[in-house]
Amino acid sequence: MRSGVHADEVDEHVIGWASRLGLPRDEAEAARLGETKVGRLAARTTPRAGLEALCLLADWQMWLFLFDDRYSDESSDGADLNQLSQLVTGFMLVLDNDGERRYRHDPFTAALGELIDRVRAVATGPQVNRFGQRRAGLLPGPVLGGGPPSARPAGRAGRVHGDAPAQRRGPTCTALIDVANGFELAGREYWRPEVRRSATSRST
To answer: Where do the domains of the chain lie, and which CATH numbers do they carry?
Structure first.
C-alpha cells in the first residue's frame, strides 16, 4: 500500500503530537503548522512506509520545522548565542544518552527523547547510531562558525549563500527515510564517498 493514502491522517496526527508535547506556543501557531502539510511531505519521500513509520518521520520533520521557527539564526531567540549554546547542549545530551529521561527538561527535549524512544523501537543499532550522527543539522550558523546574523546577507540573498536553516538541516530531515521505508544500507554502501556526498549535500 502506498503511503500517500495515509497523508491526511498523518497531517492530523502530527499536529496532535506536537500540541500534546507543548511544542506550539499557542493555538494560532498550531493552526499555522497544520497548513504546512508535513504528513503529505513525509508521504512523498517514503512511498513504502506504513502508517506508524510515516508518523515517526513526520513527527521528526515537524520537530525540525518548529526548531527552525523558534531558534534559527534568523530569529530573535537564535541571535542570543548564550541561550542558543545552552539549548543545543541540551539537545546533544538527549542524543548522546539515548534519550534518557533525566535530560528531558522542556517540550523540545521531551519531544526529542520520545522520538529517540520510537526510533530505537523500530530501527537497527546502526540506524540509531546514524540518526544520532546527523546532529550537525541542529546547529545554527553562529554555532557552526558562520558568524552572527548581522554579518551575513539578509533575506533571499542570505539563503542563496547557503545560510538558510532549511539548507543546513536537509540531511537531518531525511535521516529517518531508510527507517520509514523499511530498508538499511550495509556499512560498505553507506560509507561510499558518493553516498555520503549525496546524503550531506545542501539544496540550492
So the answer is: 3-200 (1.10.600.10)
